[in-house]
Amino acid sequence: MSSDRGRETAPRTEYLKAYRVMLMARVLEEKLSSLYRAGHIKGGVFLGRGQEALSVSVGINLRKGDIYAPLIRDQAGRMAFGDTALDTLRTYLGSQLGSMRGRDGNIHRGRPREGYYAMISHLGAMIPTVTGALLARRFRGETGVVGATCIGDGGTSTGAFHEGLNAAAVEKLPLIMVVANNQYAYSTPNDRQYACADLLDKAAGYGVAGHDVDGTDLGACLEVLGKAVAAARAGGGPQLIVGRLLRLVGHGEHDDASYVDPALKASHVGRDCLKVAEDYIVENGWATPEEIASWRVEAKSEVDVTAAKVLREPAPDPNEEEWMAISETRLQDNFAA
Amino acid sequence: MITYLDAIRSAMDEALGRDPRVFLYGQDIGSFGGAFKATKGLAKKYPGRVMDAPLSEDAIVGIAIGAAIEGMRPIVEMQFADFSTCGFNQIVNHAATLFYRTEVSCPIVVRLPSGGSPGGGPFHSQSMEGLYAQYPGLVVMTPGTVEDAYSMLLDAVTIDDPVIFCEHKFLYNHLRAEELPKETTPIGKARIVRHGRDVTVVTYSAMVHESLAAADELREDGYQVEVVDLRTVKPLDTDTVLASVARTGRLLCVSESFPWGGVSAEVIARVTSEGFGLLDAPPQRLSAKDTPVPYHPNLWSSHRPTANAIASALRRLLEM
C-alpha cells in the first residue's frame, strides 16, 4: 500500500493541465446548476464539486485505447478523457445532437465505441462491465491497456462492487477501481454505510493492491493515480484507490445537503480541492492569481457560448424516433399499434 | 442418437470453432464441463476460451456485456435459470438498454437452464422467459426440440442483440433426434408441429411435448388438435398464431411458468385484440400453479401442466 505523500512530485505541466480541466469542469457545472434552476434541464443535475482533483487524476492518467466508466461526479475525469462541454450540455439539455440523442440524460452519457462507457444508474454495474472489456482486450492479445471505473462510498456496499472487483482479481486484469469516499451516499453517512475501519481494507480482502490518497490534494491524487495506473498497465492486476474527501454539494441540485456535519466541512476533508490547487500554483509561482482569474473567464465564456448554441438545438421528435430497442430489425416484435 | 443436451453442446462447439470472438463463461463450465455437462470437453478443445467464473451472476453478465462492447461474442451459462435473478440488473437494465441508449449493440447469449425437473424444488425449476420478454431490448428463445436447441443457439450467437436462451433441463436427456438439422426455421417464426382443425394449442419448450401427448389423447375422441410451438417468445409470431386460430376458432395457451401475466397472457391479449372475430369460444390458458415450484415429485408433477391436464382443458374448451 502506498501512502499519501502529498504534493511534492507532480510536474508543473501535468499539474497545470489537470488544474485547467478541473477549472473547466467546475465552471461547466456552475452553468449546469444555473440552467437547472432556470428550468432548462428536465432531469437531475449531479455535481462533482469537491471531487475534481481525484476525478481529473483518473482521466488524465488514461490514454486513447484505455477504457473509462466514470461515475456521476466525474465531470473532471470525463473531460480529461476527452468528453466536451458541448456533449455534456447536449446530453443534459436533451439535444437530438448529443451522444445520447435525448434517450438518456445527464451523467449517463458515453461513447462506448471510444472506450468511454455510458453508466447505468445501478451503482457498481460498470465494474464487472469494465472487467469484461479488459478480458476482451486480453483475448485480442492487447497489453498495456487499463480500464478505470469509479464508485462512491455507498457503491462499495453493492454486490456488483464485490463481484466485479473479485472477478477482476481472479483474472488479474488491469482494473483501476477508484472509490471517492465523499462521506455521504445521498444523505447516509459513512457510519451507517460500512463498519470496517477503512474502505481500503477491501483491497486486501480481494487480493488487490490498495492506495490511499488525500482527495483534496491534486498533487497527491496525480501521483497516486499515476502510480496505480502504471502498476496495472505493467501487469500488476487490479488497483483499488480510495480518495478521502467531502462532497461539497448535495447529492443532486435538488438536495440542500443540510444533513452534512459542519465539523466535517471545517475539517481537512472539507477543503475545496480547486482552491487548494490554486493556492499551490500561486505559492509555486507557476501562475499569478490574475492569470488564474483569466483562465476562469476564458472557461466561462466558452461554456456560455456553448450553452447558448445547445439551447437552440433540436429536441428529439417522437414522430421521427425509430422506437427500436434492438439492432436487428428482423427481430423486432410486431405489436399491434 | 443426439440428445437436446448434445445439440446445445454441439452448437457451442461449432460456434467456438467458427468464430474466434466466441467464448464461454460461467460457473463450473471449464474442465468440469458444467453442472449439466453442457460444456463437457470444450475447455480442452478450446484452451482459454471456456472459463470458470466466480460464483457471481452479476459479474458474469456484466463481464459478458463489457466483452461484447469490445467486439466479443460471449455465451454465458447461468447454472440454473433461477440464479439469473442475481444477474437480473445487468440483463434488464444494462444489456437490454445499451443499444437504445448508445447505438452500440450487445451481442451476448445468456443460457438459462430452465423449467422444472423432479426434485428440483423452488430455486432450481423456474421458467423465466415471460419475465425477460417483458423488457424491451432482449430476444427470448425457448427451443422445444433437439433441432431447435442446436440451430437456435447457433443463431443466438450471431445475433447482434442480447439473447436469453431458455433451454429446458427436463429435455436435456429425455429428448433425442437422429441427427442435427441441416435446414432451420428462421428465428422469430413459430412452427405448427401438428396440424388440426378443431382447436389450437399455443405453447413452447417442454410443454410442446405434453401438448402433443394431449393431442394424441384427443384424437381418440375424434378431435384434431393443432399445436403451435412459438420457438421464440420474443419476438412473438402473432401471425402464425392468428392464422391457426382462424382455422380452428379455439385457443388454449399452455406454459410451464407461473400463471400471472407472462407469455400466455400476451398471446391471449394479442389474439383477442387482433383476432376477436376468429374466436368461437373464450381463449383459455393453462399454466403452472401460483405457488413456488415444489420439491416432492408428487407435488411437482401436478404443479406444472401435464398431458392429462392439457387434455382436460382441451375437452372443456371444445365443449364451450
From TrEMBL, chain A:
SUPFAM superfamilies with a match to the protein in the record: Thiamin diphosphate-binding fold (THDP-binding)
Domain of life: Bacteria
Keywords: Oxidoreductase, Pyruvate, Thiamine pyrophosphate
Presence of keyword ATP-binding: no
Gene3D superfamilies linked: 3.40.50.970
Oxidoreductase is among the record's keywords: yes
Molecular function, one GO term: pyruvate dehydrogenase (acetyl-transferring) activity
GO biological process, one term: pyruvate decarboxylation to acetyl-CoA
Cofactor(s) it depends on: thiamine diphosphate
Annotated CDD domains: TPP_E1_PDC_ADC_BCADC
Domain Dehydrogenase E1 component stretches: 20-318
Name of the protein in question: Pyruvate dehydrogenase E1 component alpha subunit
Organism expressing this protein natively: Terrimicrobium sacchariphilum
Lineage: Bacteria, Pseudomonadati, Verrucomicrobiota, Terrimicrobiia, Terrimicrobiales
From TrEMBL, chain B:
Chain ranges of the Transketolase-like pyrimidine-binding domain: 2-174
Sample GO molecular function, one term: oxidoreductase activity
Statement: the UniProt record of this protein carries the keyword Transmembrane helix: no
Keyword entries, A-Z: Oxidoreductase, Pyruvate, Thiamine pyrophosphate
Superkingdom in the source lineage: Bacteria
Alphabetized SUPFAM superfamilies for the sequence: Thiamin diphosphate-binding fold (THDP-binding) (SSF52518), TK C-terminal domain-like (SSF52922)
Record has Oxidoreductase as a keyword: yes
UniProt cofactor(s): thiamine diphosphate
Protein name per UniProt: Pyruvate dehydrogenase E1 component beta subunit
Organism name: Terrimicrobium sacchariphilum
